[in-house]
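Chain A, query sequence.
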Amino acid sequence: MLNKPNKIWLAPAKINRFLHITGQREDGYHELQTVFQFLDHCDELSFTIRSDNKILHQNPLAGVKPEDDLTVRAAKLLQHDASATQGVEISINKRLPMGGGLGGGSSDAATTLVALNELWQLNRSTDELAKLGVQLGADVPIFVHGYAAWAEGVGERLSEIELDEPWFVVVVPSVSVSTAAIFSHPDLPRHCALITQNEFLSGKGTNVCELIVREKYPQVEQAIQFLAQFSPARMTGTGACVFAALDSEQKAKKILGQIPAKMTGFIARGKNKSPLYS
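Chain A, predicted structure.
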């Protein structure tokens, strides 16, 4: 069963437990190795089905045109692909920061695909929805499939992985990092040697984007230095958010209570199964 309490659909955050760039294709896309895990910290979406074919965003994000919003694009993509005659009104309680490396936009798009597939009674398979989702962003299939995953290629080759599910303190620096700017940076390491899942599980793996982001954004450097006092700290994706794993909610809350005034953050539990489906 999908998680729909009071017709609320969850769009969870993700973290990258590590991120290596292993090459760059002729089309400019980067080959990578990474591990995605979900957090039980989520955007909340609701959908009101319309009898006409209009796709409407009820509370668009500041600075984002409704037609550019990933939820609207996801709804239109699915509607066109399935020749659906119904429309929808989309509302979002936005809790995940933009430009933070937590995958909020991709997660919202995936939840839209999954929700409308059910509400419009389209009967598309998870694999079919994931193939549509990759047209919206490389991370969207992760959220559609809904399990913690080892990812390769441009992030589209997924295999399920079983991880520990610690408590995480996530610090949100007051800066938005451009993924495109980081991936186009001349100093980005682009030829990491391939590692195996067993090597990762035994402790190998870093985030190769982190050094560049720390140098360009002092707020990220400060966040990592703060968290590193308590537990090994790492940036997720291309930033800006950083996280540290703890073995109890109590420890995580204690650290969050000491967060510097210029930073914000939250605690969340790591989840191998997406809160959308659990």
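Residues 114 and 232 are 35 Å apart (CA to CA). The radius of gyration is 18 Å.
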